[in-house]
Amino acid sequence: MILALKTASAVTEAWLYESAEAAMPQAELEWESGRDLADQLLGKIAQFLAESQARMADLTGIVIFSGPGSFTSLRIGHTTAGALADSLSIPIAGATGEDWAQKALAKLKTTPKGQLALPHYGSEANVTRPKT
């Protein structure tokens, strides 16, 4: 089972695919995460899997939308997905564009375990300077 995540905005989306060859997801989830994504993401994934009669251990791969999008949302999504992939010893692949999920699913077939999926922000991060 493949978990697909899109955390590029205030609305977070997740899908479950039976395999990397599946054309359509078997389950999907969408919620308004707003500024609470870091607090919600892992719990929402666990709940989504449970509602789909699946467990974390059933995951064989993770695909993620790599951007562009919100710097913080993409960073949280990639960090969580990467940590899950590492802890489960499964591959992770990212892609961009409208057909990102199909591209990432295809990429997942040849992605070795332990290879990182990195976000693509679309521009330089807008980081404020520390106050002096």
Task: Detail the topology: elements first, then pairings.
Elements: E1 2-6, E2 11-17, E3 27-32, H1 37-51, E4 61-65, H2 71-88, E5 92-95, H3 100-108
Parallel strand pairs: 1-4, 4-5
Antiparallel strand pairs: 1-2, 2-3
Helix pairs in contact: 1-2
CATH H-tier superfamily: ATPase, nucleotide binding domain
CATH second-level architecture:
2-Layer Sandwich
N-C termini distance: 50 Å
Q: Which class in CATH terms?
A: Alpha Beta
Largest beta sheet: what is the strand line-up? 3-2-1-4-5
| Main sheet overview | 5 strands, mixed
Radius of gyration: 14 Å
Number of strands: 5
Our count of domains comes out at: 1
Which structural class best describes the helix and strand composition? alpha/beta
Measured as a percent range, the helix fraction is 25-40%
Task: Give a short synopsis of this structure.
32% of the residues lie in helices and 20% in strands. By secondary structure, it is α/β, with parallel strands linked by helices.
Describe the structure.
The structure is a single chain. This protein is of the alpha/beta class. The protein has one domain: ATPase, nucleotide binding domain (Nucleotidyltransferase, domain 5). The protein contains 3 helices and 5 strands. It has helices spanning about 35-50, 70-90, 100-110, and strands at about 1-5, 10-15, 25-30, 60-65, 90-95. The protein has a 5-stranded mixed β-sheet with strand order 3-2-1-4-5, with helices on both faces. A hairpin with a 4-residue loop joins strand 1 and strand 2 (about 10-15). Helix 1 packs across helix 2. The longest helix is centred in the middle third of the chain and has 18 residues, at about 70-90. The radius of gyration is 14 Å and the shape is globular.
